[in-house]
Amino acid sequence: MSTLAALERQGVLPVLRSRNADDAVATAHACRRAGMTVVELTHSTPDVERAVAALADDEIVVGIGTITDSDQVRAGAAAGARFVVSFGASAELVDAARDAGIEAIPGALTPSEVLACWSAGAAAVKLFPARLIEPAYLRDLRTVIPEVRLVVSGGIKPDADSIRPWLAHGAVAVALGEALGTVAVEGHAEVERRCRTALEAVTQQRTEGR
What we know:
CATH architecture: Alpha-Beta Barrel
Radius of gyration: 16 Å
Mean pLDDT: 95
CATH superfamily: Aldolase class I
Strand order of the largest sheet: 5-4-3-2-1-9-8-7-6
Low-confidence stretches: none
CATH class: Alpha Beta
Strand content: 15-25%
């Protein structure tokens, strides 16, 4: 199964902004116990490549976000990352990911930026920040670019009221960052609870939204 297919099946993407590599690994394992197999670490985490390497063999599809240049793409791929995510649109990052044999999810907000990312060969496009748009915006985008796959990020909480509207309007997944937390701050049990709540919201939307 491709990385994007696994992400689309999961419906939510935990974005782990951890204070160190050990916290990132521990939080990813908490997500896995809750039923999530795809996680995004962030380049703001010190020694993030070590965390990626530690997770690569643990039945977790791991990616690195907050990517800003092609060197970071190559380093992440070498460590075992299966995908990279950026908050901005960059054909250079998409090209670097393609060369490394991994998938890229660059960031965009406007229709022109979304089209540029998709035309460059992105596996999906990250809409960021979600605080500035409404779920219906996705429907408008998909009217003119129906094939585009959209991941929404920025201020989304791990509950049904926050998650379901984005999925209902066409997002393949929503990203959960600060509101999900990490085990160093929230503890293992709370991170697992929030992950399960988010996954339940995805299931509800797919069941009731048909």
